[in-house]
Amino acid sequence: MSVGSMGALSNFMESMRYLFADIIGEQDDRPAFLPENLPEAVVPVASEAIHLLTEYQGTPYARVYVYRLRRFIGKPGVDDAMLCEIARLMAIRMAYEDTIRIAQQKLIELQTDPDTPRADDVRKFRLDELIDVLPALIAEPLLDLLDWLGWVHKRVSIHFNNKSWLGVRRLRVEASLRRWRRYSIRYGKERLWVERWLHMIDRALTKQPTAAHEVIHTATMVQGYGDTYRYGLANWHAIIDGLAKPTFDGVLNLPDLAGAIAEARATAMPDPRQAALKRKIAEIRARALGGDAEAAAE
To answer: DSSP label at 255?
Structure first.
């Protein structure tokens, strides 16, 4: 058995233990508390985030949020306003929108307001996007099969229907998949993205503090689901890999990295080829490299 298969099997076994513990009520329900020394101005934002993420994935997930936020408390260059933005945007991104979350939200609407209008909410997803919410051990063979059939990018309509008993029952089944989410392909991707975003904020604070605000707000590029999510994520990576990371690495000389990121973001479009964005990044890099050449000549 390959290393990857062994890892997938381990994750599957962990998910089975988590599922069993959830059924018999033996899961870790220690609440997530606000981190120590959190500025008063950030308390409402962080409190709301902890509530959101506990609802989204449970108390262990909310504690991950607290751990991540703690890294920026008292950090040089991070004032209350900046910490608020990190806390707010991180919570939004950690509560990413997948089919499980949409089902959760539909049920919450019914619980909080029984008189809410009943409707059949139809949304478009790609097949690989639906499979990504399953544990990797199950998802990977399915994705291989879909790839062989040429159906990976096939779009399907999913009904989130709260108009009937059967529709509500289906929403409950979909929402119950929450217990599997931590072992899904999508969860792993999102965890890596959040960590990279936080790492880039940290590098900005160290290498070019004036760009930190702009790096923080790049999180707003990644949102939603379907094409909106995929294009936003691709554009985010293009800007980080083309401008921010080379600057932090000392490969590219961009004294005004914040301005460069804002300029690039203004051209980012929902284009699978990223034509306009790639041209703009190339233009910014050419200006920077040209400036380096002129300085060397002098």
So the answer is: T
